Amino acid sequence: MASPSRKFLLAGRGGLNLTHSEPFDAFLGRYREARGWLEPALNAFPPQALRDWADGLGAETFVGSSVRVFPRAMKASPLLRAWLGRLDAGGVRLAAGWHWTGWDADDALTFRLASGETERVRPDATVLALGGASWPRLGSDGGWVPLLAGRGVVVSPLRPANGGFTVAWSPQMKERFVGQPLKRVVIRCAGEQATGEAMIDADGIEGGAIYALSATIREAIRRDGAVTISIDLRPDLTAPDLAARLAKHRKGETLSNHLRKSAGLAPVAIALLRDAAGAALPAEPEALAELIKAAPLRLGTPMPIARAISSAGGIVREECDDGFMLKRLPGVFVAGEMLDWEAPTGGYL
């Protein structure tokens, strides 16, 4: 790209969640199947080390109410300016607008410059940190995959992670509720659950609670073609408590008003219930309470990887030594989202 750290700056628009302050063992568990692979690296540079790094650049960090860690400025640009200043003072040269095109016949790195010229570089060591394939307009488009695969490096296909999923919404849901959040819900899928918000999108559903389960949902869809999740719209109330409230239906009151007043449901949640029921909502308080506690929603396919926060897939563990050097390409190291791991958004990426 013409300037560095565009994805870093985009992340800063949401407050720049740098890491997470939960107990370290729980932190390691967020990396799922890749925990054993990444644990030595995370031990060498744990969340506190990342905080110390940011603090050392003048971007003092704090732990928010969500137990996530942010810079006090709540944006990326001050931290980035200090970071680039330190690199410049250390003699680091940033060459903007260089597009890596692989290796030539003599194993030199080749680049296409913004001017259209080509450049060859033969370094002592190469560190590739080229990202995944999410947000390609910011630079990380997965174009490195065929370059490494052409050298025999095994790459698991890049897939969307921390992204949304398609839903066949009713016309009313599309017309009236796109862009509205379902707040403080619990979503369940295949024995796992996540608490947070979900956002209604014209094409489906996304948001923090969906992202936290995205790997589980994506793999269920890959296996079965579709999956039905369960949404608890009032996790703070038990089904019997809800049923008792719903039993007090005032004569002449519309069902929507009754659900709003007695069950505390927002209009978007009521619309979701109607979509979930597929017909008229049940009249019996107990049945209606059960629906509110476990509204079924059938999900189709993952939204495109270009819309996802991050990528799953990448260079498989067996291709790297303990120092993340490619065994097939001595002197070439790989890092970050290029590797085959995934974790939820919220301080782990």
Molecular structure report:
By secondary structure, the chain is α+β, with helices and mostly antiparallel strands. Helices cover 32% and strands 21% of the residues. It has 13 helices and 16 strands. The strands form 5 sheets. Strands 9-12-11-10-13-14 form a 6-stranded antiparallel beta sheet. It has a 3-stranded antiparallel beta sheet with strand order 1-3-2, covered by helices on one side. A 3-stranded antiparallel beta sheet has the order 4-5-6. The mean pLDDT is 95.
Task: Summarize it.
The chain is an alpha+beta fold. It contains 13 helices and 16 strands.
SSE topology:
Layout lengths: L5 H7 L6 E2 L3 H6 L5 H10 L2 H10 L4 E3 L4 E4 L5 H13 L9 E5 L5 E4 L5 E4 L4 E3 L15 H6 L5 E7 L3 E2 L4 H7 L3 E9 L2 E9 L3 E3 L1 H5 L1 H11 L2 E6 L6 H8 L8 H8 L4 H11 L7 H9 L1 E5 L10 E6 L16 E3 L15
Helix pairs in contact: 7-12, 10-13
Distance between the amino and carboxyl termini: 21 Å
- Let me know the average pLDDT: 95
Instruction: Give the tally of β-strands.
Output: 16
With strands numbered from the N-terminus, the spatial order across the biggest sheet is 9-12-11-10-13-14
Coarse shape: elongated
Structural class, by secondary structure, is alpha+beta
How many helical stretches?
A: 13
Helix content estimate: 25-40%
* Radius of gyration using CA atoms only: 24 Å
Features:
single chain; 349 residues; alpha+beta; three-stranded antiparallel sheet; 16 strands; 21% strand; elongated
